[in-house]
Write a structure and sequence with these properties.
alpha+beta, PurM-like_C_sf, Phosphoribosyl-aminoimidazole Synthetase, Chain A, domain 2, 60s Ribosomal Protein L30, Chain: A, 10 helices, PurM-like_N, 14 strands, 3 domains, single chain
């Protein structure tokens, strides 16, 4: 490596290592995209204010150990909370209530936890039809039963007409992590294999079609589902699973960039291993959106040791993820970066999302 190449690499490393700057004086829709603006807001506002050893794990759930849990059950406790403001509140394949249950169950599962209990808080806008509320509440109960969790507490607030958008829901969840499970970016090793549980971008495109603003009609349904059963099967087949993340806001590209930054390793994706349904891809093409950045609500990524990858894939195929694929690997270089190997054998860098092409997706 000559002196100029060394200088360029040093500058790249400095950019990758430094915190993302918070440049805005006011909150914008981009701060809800799951991309660079979201990361900067979380880092400079919430992490600065709340930072502690659990929150610094920067996962979808905080995993803690208590003396009682470890002594009696050999387990850790995982907790997660999330708010749902999707527009519209009903869309092909699901609704805001089902999404709220599945989203929190999945956040717990991504920490290796077995979800147990949920709470739900509702902000209702004056004028919301009671029949609509009943439908959403019923779908929440059905989703909770399917995932094997109980809704054990809740709260309801009503705000004047125009102060909300029909209905917002916040759910919190608790689960237990078996003592033999440790997942996180620090577990990831070079040579590990990346598995994608199913086709991508269906949820984001289903919601966009449901809004009706684009005069485009396509029978695309959201992928919203609870994945905890699949994750249990995955751990049975691949007990050394390193890392898990559901590709929600910001899509596969964003969560892979988060992994690359956290590990300082290269996430190398294979285009042929990333499935996009034909109609979903067509909708993305019409809107000029890369499917890699579109939200999913029942699709996750897993990093597993190479020698356990086939067993993991087989387990997913028989536990609710028949279209799971091996979509990439972990390499040393280019460090802290995501690279996509195209079907033609070329490569392109996959950066973190900057703006928010699809607001109010979850």
């Amino acid at each position: 490596m000559n002196e100029d190449e060394a200088r360029v690499n040093l500058n790249i490393d400095r950019v990758r290592a430094r915190p993302l700057p918070l440049k805005d004086d006011h909150v914008t829709l981009a701060h809800g995209s799951g991309g660079k603006a979201s990361a900067a807001l979380v880092e400079h506002v919430f992490m600065d204010a709340y930072g502690n050893d659990v929150l610094s794990q920067a996962g979808d759930s905080g995993v803690v150990a208590t003396a009682e849990l470890v002594q009696e059950h050999g387990t850790h406790l995982a907790m997660s909370t999330d708010s749902y403001v999707v527009n519209p509140i009903e869309f092909p394949g699901g609704n805001i209530g089902e999404l709220a249950i599945n989203g929190t169950v999945n956040d717990l599962a991504m920490a290796g936890a077995q979800p147990k209990f949920l709470t739900a808080g509702f902000v209702l806008e004056e004028g919301l039809a009671v029949s609509t509320l009943k439908t959403i509440v019923a779908s929440m109960r059905e989703a909770a039963d399917k995932a094997g969790v109980k809704i054990i507490a809740g709260d309801t607030k009503v705000v004047p007409r125009g102060a909300a958008d029909k209905l917002f829901i916040t759910t919190a969840g608790v689960g237990v992590v078996p003592s033999n499970r440790t997942v996180g970016a620090e577990q990831v090793r070079e040579g590990d294999v990346i598995i994608l549980s199913g086709p991508i971008a269906d949820h984001g495109m289903a919601v966009m079609m449901a809004r009706g603003d684009l005069a485009i009609q396509a029978p695309i349904e959201s992928d919203t589902q609870a994945v905890n059963g699949m994750v249990e099967a995955l751990f049975t087949a691949a007990p050394d699973t390193r890392w898990l993340r559901d590709a929600t806001r910001g899509g596969v590209a964003t969560v892979c960039n988060e992994l690359a930054r956290a590990t300082a390793k290269a996430v190398v994706l294979q285009d042929e291993g990333i499935k996009v349904r034909e109609l979903t891809r067509a909708a993305c093409d019409i809107l000029g959106i890369d499917p890699l950045y579109v939200a999913n609500e029942g699709t996750f990524l897993a990093v597993v040791p190479a020698d356990q990858a086939q067993a993991a894939l087989d387990a997913l195929h028989t536990s609710g993820a028949p279209e799971a694929t091996i979509c990439g690997r972990i390499d040393a270089q280019p460090a802290a970066s995501v690279v996509l190997v195209t079907g033609f054998g070329g490569t392109r860098m996959v950066d973190m999302l900057v703006g928010d092409p699809l607001p109010r997706i979850c």
